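User: I'm putting together a teaching handout on how sequence relates to shape, and I'd like one worked example. Could you take 4-hydroxyphenylpyruvate dioxygenase from Dissostichus eleginoides, show the sequence you're using, and then write out its predicted structure as tokens right after it?

Assistant: Happy to. First the sequence, then the structure tokens directly below it.
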Amino acid sequence: MTSYTDKGEKHARGRFVKFHHITFWVGNAKQAASFYCDKMGFEPLAYKGLETGSREVVSHVINRIR
């Protein structure tokens, strides 16, 4: 039987050093990329969509401003 009160021993907290990339799957990629650029200080870097020959997926690559 599973007991939800006893979750076992806790691990020591790790340290987050850095990351290479994060992928978000969203319903409206243009709106999401625009939000991150306007509100959180990112900048557009690359685009993949109908104009570049991709008929199934639209991707916006954004980069943090250094």
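A couple of points you could highlight for students: The beta strands are 42-48, 59-64. The radius of gyration is 19 Å.
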